[in-house]
Amino acid sequence: MSTRITNTIFVAAAWLKHQLCAWNTGGEGIHSPYLFHLVRLIISDDNHYYSWDAIEERRRAMLRAPKRIDVTDYGSRGQGATYSCLVSDIAKNSLEAPSRAQTFFRIVNWLSHETDKPLNIIELGTNLGITTAYLATPSTANTVTTFEGSGALVEMAQLNWRKLGLTNIRVREGNIDETLPVSGIDKYDVAYIDANHRYQPTVNYADFFIRRAAQKSIVIIDDIHYSPEMQQAWTEIRQRPEVTSTMDFFHFGILFFDNHYLKRNYRLRL
After folding, report:
1. Phi and psi dihedrals of 122, rounded to 5?
2. Strand residue runs (E) in 2-159
3. Residue-range domains of the chain with CATH
4. Which of 6, 40, 130, 194 could hold 125 in an S-S bridge, CB 3.0 to 4.6 Å?
5. What is the CB neighbour count within 10 angstroms for residue 54?
6. pLDDT tens digits, one per residue of 155-171
7. pLDDT digits over 173-195, tens only?
């Protein structure tokens, strides 16, 4: 049986288990008032924000783009392997779903108001820059530093940011395994990991941010049930002693570091 079929079966089984075990209570049962507020008023918020329309127009433009680019892949296809791909196919198969990207927007927007200071946001895995735009638009005072291995994807992402008028995004191009350790990052408010979807790189990226976490830092890890090794990585990461509460939304997980929170993993539905 091929790896793709095996992963498809695994994801289907993991999704069913999540649906049976997850809560859909709007925050009821979460002990920390801070985390309750996050779930009840932010993640469960159904308001539409004005900046989303322009970002989704850029997504649609990418879905229609006939351009073919040479993508450098430091992940599943091998270290530095290059392959040719239509931009429209990348947009169709690799971009974060609007509902999840908009959830990340809400989290950043809420933190911006809660902390009343500019946020330092780190993203691993720029892709076409659509999720990056969602991270950058809650406040122009925030700074987003995004890491991407493929120069061709960086060019497409920068095009999208120019079209959106975003000037608070900085990009670091190159193999993330090499650029992240020498990035000089020593603190952050939000980190979003959506890069190399394998066990060891995911653990390494998470450890990088865990070592630099402040009490109110948040780490979001994408595709935590994408494969058996990603689920193993998520299970081990959330058991780190520095990590307190965690939230598992199936497609992504959130790490918290406040020592006032219970050591507990909340399985939730969006």
Report:
1. -120, 135
2. 68-73, 81-86, 120-124, 143-148
3. 3-64+94-267 (3.40.50.150)
4. 194
5. 14
6. 999 999 999 999 999 99
7. 999 999 999 999 999 999 999 99
